[in-house]
Amino acid sequence: MSSAHHDPFAREALPAADRQPELRFDLPALRYPERLNAADVLLDRHVREGRGDRRCILAPGGTAWSYADLLDRANRIANVLVDDLGVVPGSRVLLRAPNTPMLAACWFAVVKAGAIAVTTMPLYRAGELRHMIDKAQVRLALCDARIAGELASATEGADVRTVLFGSEDAELERRMASASPVFENVATAAEDVALIGFTSGTTGSAKATMHYHRDLLAICDTYAARVLKAHPDDLFTGSPPLGFTFGLGGELICPLHIGAATLLLEKAPPADLLRAIGEYGVNVVFTAPIAYRAMTAMLADADVSSLRLCVSAGETLPAPVWQAWHEATGLKILDGIGSTEMLHIFVGSGVDDARPGATGKVVPGYVAEIHDDDGNPLPLGAIGRLAVKGPTGCRYLDDERQGSYVRDGWNYPGDAYSLDADGYFHYIARTDDMIVSAGYNISGPEVEQALLAHAGVKECAVVAKADPAHGTNIVKAFVVRNDDADVDAEALVAFCKERIAPYKAPREVEFVDALPRTETGKVQRYKLRA
Hints:
The protein has 16 helices and 26 strands. The chain has about 525 residues and is α/β, with parallel strands linked by helices. It has a domain at about 435-530: GMP Synthetase, Chain A, domain 3. Strands 2-1-10-9-11-12-13-14-15 form a nine-stranded mixed sheet, with helices on both faces. A four-stranded parallel sheet has the order 4-3-5-6, sandwiched between helices. A four-stranded antiparallel sheet has the order 16-17-20-21, with no helix packed on it. The N and C termini lie far apart (about 55 Å).
């Protein structure tokens, strides 16, 4: 079936056929029609089948949208995109906002119009946004007016139109008011690109991953349906931004697929997340291990009686955190591993088979093995590279690193694991220099680049440092000062936060006289980690 995209950019930027992952559609639910618009299944279908009055999206401040409410707004925005802003199928539209109902409506509008959603995180700075704009060749951005400053800097001198939303007098809302609430979804192909998600790589530059309309439904028909097993009457919430595919899947795509509701929180530190669970009667929560650890200490003054399903991903879940939460609440944390490249979770635990200290079993619809460096399967108990195949897979946008992630049809997420005789996968470590901290993937070289921009820094190296008190890692920088430079750690951290997202900035800075190097000049990071 031919693509419905008028703008062929994404299709032409796909990896060559021999560099793409081998896909598997073993489950009957994964055999999708050739023409498929994911928004129709996730949203329009519910209204069409008489479920329009069901609650759909809640938000603090009294917002309570039904499925019909969301469809009305998404259709109006889609008409604005097509009739007023020149969007055609295949156009890339950058979305920038906290987790709000309007961000969800904009995302659905882009997908309905057959365009490609490029959802970014609110914490990204101008330099990071500009890289994404250039990489995805974005020409239109929809942005929450409250955080428009960095985007304005990022688009300076670029051929990008920004349309603001977030208030009645904002441009998008004004245009929506006169737009039709009826929109005919573009008849996209199942293999048309629906979203581009960015993930930081160890080289310091963000990689763009492309996912089809079919992929958005595949995570629902595999992980959500066969591992999570939520109910249509459930209320979901979580802490990850919708700019992360973990958050997009857990807080928007998966709940709407079954006709459930989601509570979108603009900011969700542990105390606020715990408060929201009790106030709204949340049943399903998605967050990182560090949040469960922090919330466990706050349970004496909290109400979590409504909770049924607690999902953890983003970094390894320490067994003591699992056990402490279980002892305090009676609930098992459902650990899992996913990646932006794979879209969502492909190894994870359900309520009936969750074990502390194990990530879980392979999600039905996927296969996973432990390989050596040459791609050969290893025996049970051996430590090697996690290798995965399934209905989703890595497709980098015009990136030579495709050959590192995908080899011989297998996806290699970059994690060292072992597999036991019961089919449980056990996390060992990352196989590259990626730092995973509080659920965020942070590229050490990217932080190094920010530090090196300071006049007082001669050399630096950034590594992960274990933080046992919080069950996570922190970013630690080793810095060699320029001669006679008068700079302290606090100033360097502040300098970094002006150039990259604050969560990427070092938590610790240690000044050293020299960095350990090999004879060929490479920094020996293993010595710094030790």
